């Protein structure tokens, strides 16, 4: 009897995992359409009058913060003002009245982001909220702050198009950066053309990663956010650990540690993300690194970005990582949709907050 009951529970878990896989895969594959919708939504928002800003700050957590990291990587070689991604309750001292401050929370209820939003309001800098509702939408509307209101109901990590594009459009409207309209069009076209092909590649990679530790290296500032995204997606969708670092910095510390502890070495897969912007010397460094540490990992995979513009190149490898995370979830029979531990922690924090 007991065995049958267990088998029933197992069976329903496997079915739920498969349903979740289909849902998440549909969301991942839908990124180009989401980017187009996000552009249309953001184009209708009035971000306020054009003026000089000293810096741009993006406050958010997890899936809502990654858009800020992508923005920072993308504009790193164009902008002369810094972009700071604030993943904390407290905003850094660089936030002044001359900052442009985006408070980004898909749910609108993330306490760290709400705290940063309130501080930014007190500092009286230009604040813009990006959210699908919740407390952030309420507070922003009450304060008369521009709100980019997104459609609700998605896991935040599946809303990257919605969470990233409004930041870029805001910077365009405020004449902080050039227009990226054509680059977005290229990225959308590139993903549409290649998504099936990339999915096959993702299936092969997921097989290599199954029961192993992914170690993802960015090799250019442009790709740092992509490596970060690989980590978050592997954590949240596939429910596995993942380690991220960047070259050339890796050559000056982590290089020495590769291969230990020994039991991990044969369980580690090294994934190097490469781009046209990767310095030729950094490519050479990667070659030497791989030659010198051959026994330190099970396998090394080198992935080149595709596309012409930097934006398209970022999204080509980002999309592949999203697909790998979903395919790995399928292989592991875990449901990529729920993030029970994040929800549980938020519940515990809420409860503690109420008791205070
Ligand atoms: C869940 C996810 C998380 C959330 C984070 C912040 O899909 O990606 O990393 O993004 O817990 O919540 P929001 O985005 O609602 O502010």
Keywords:
356 residues; alpha/beta; five-stranded parallel sheet; 13 helices; 9 strands; globular; binds fructose -6-phosphate
Structural notes for this entry:
The longest helix is centred in the middle third of the chain and has 29 residues, at 181-209. Helix 7 packs parallel to helix 12 (310-332). Helix 5 links the parallel strand 4 (126-131) and strand 5 (147-149). Strands 2-1-3-4-5 form a five-stranded parallel β-sheet, with helices on both faces. Strands 7-6-8-9 form a four-stranded parallel β-sheet, with helices on both faces. With 356 residues, it is α/β, with parallel strands linked by helices. The chain is built from 13 helices and nine strands. The chain is globular, with a radius of gyration of 21 Å. The chain has helices spanning 2-29, 31-43, 66-75, 111-123, 134-143, 160-173, 181-209, 224-236, 254-257, 262-265, 280-292, 310-332, 340-355; strands spanning 55-59, 83-86, 99-105, 126-131, 147-149, 213-218, 243-246, 268-274, 299-304. It is 53% helix and 13% strand. The chain starts with a helix and ends with a helix. The site of fructose -6-phosphate has 15 residues, from loops. Fructose -6-phosphate binds next to loops.
Give the structure's gist in a few sentences.
This protein has 356 residues and is α/β, with parallel strands linked by helices. 53% of the residues lie in helices and 13% in strands.
Residues in helices, as a percent range: 40-55%
State which percent range the strand residues make up: 5-15%
SSE order in H/E notation? HHEHEEHEHEHHEHEHHEHEHH
Please state how the strands of the largest beta sheet are arranged side by side.
2-1-3-4-5
Number of E-state strands: 9
* Uncertain parts: none
Shape call: globular
What is the rounded Rg? Answer: 21 Å
How many angstroms does the end-to-end distance come to? 47 Å
Structural class of the secondary structure composition? alpha/beta
How many distinct helices?
A: 13
Please summarize the sheet with the most strands.
Answer: 5 strands, parallel
Q: What small molecules are bound in this structure?
A: fructose -6-phosphate
Mean pLDDT: 96
